[in-house]
Amino acid sequence: MVKYFDDNTKIRNEDTQSVRNAASLNSFLPKETVKCRGDAVFRTQAARDLACLLDIDPDVDTWQCLPLVLGNGGDWHIPDFVVDRRGTRILADSGTGPDWACQAAVAAGYIYEVTDTTNSKLAVRLQNARDLLRYAGHRVVLGDKVRLLAFLEEHGSMPIVSCLPLLQHCRDPIGVIARLCLDQALHIALDDEAIGPETRVRRIK
Question: Which domain of life does the protein's organism represent (predicted)?
Fold first, then answer.
């Protein structure tokens, strides 16, 4: 199948697949994802870092890696992600794309965004995202979930350390809290400081 992105450019699907195949050989931590649709493949560490930020963004519904090709004359570019954010479709890059990428994305029906994941303002949030995503595969026992949510419903925002004794049916109580945060059942502040014992957690209704 041939995709047309302007009057002069034809890009075959095989071009996208070859980039995905090359990216699949890379290995970046954390391995787990929450909102990824399809294979989680990343060309760079910066792309993996952006995916971490997407996974903890409450406005993001899903994201997909290396989704399509944008063309401009004889040039082409594959964005890192397509993101569904509250009904808006966004093509997202973790580094500077070509100067024509924004115009090409708009012509294809998308918004185009670039995020510099090395920005110092994102450092704390990114580290917290990485830490939480290590628990993305954690299984939460229903009894622990109900006890914790009921406790926070009664007492409001509480430090993490005060919640740990309630989690009786797991080897790693932090994993329960992390998983429920990723599921958007709990909220913790991610931008101010690294997650620790005194980090406050509250229930999301």
Answer: Bacteria
CB 157 within 8 A of CB 189: no
Which are the contacts of 25, defined by CB distance < 8 A and separation ≥ 6? Answer: none
The size of the chain, in residues, is 205
Sign of CA dihedral 127, 91, 102, 99: positive
Q: What is the CATH architecture of 137-203? A: Orthogonal Bundle (1.10)
Q: Please, what's the b/e burial string for 154-175 (b: 16 or more CB within 10 A of its CB; e: otherwise)?
A: eeeebebeebeebbeebeebbb
Rg (CA), the chain: 20
Could you give the C-alpha distances from 11 to 34, 47, 180, in angstroms and in order?
31, 23, 42
pLDDT (average), residues 139-167 = 96
Residue that is written with structure tokens 């914790």 in the block:
148
Segments making up each domain of the chain, as ranges: 2-121, 137-203
Mean pLDDT value across residues 92-108: 94
pLDDT at position 13: 59
Q: Is the pLDDT higher at 68 or at 2?
A: 68
pLDDT at 15: 73
Q: Are 63 and 37 in contact (CB under 8 A)?
A: yes
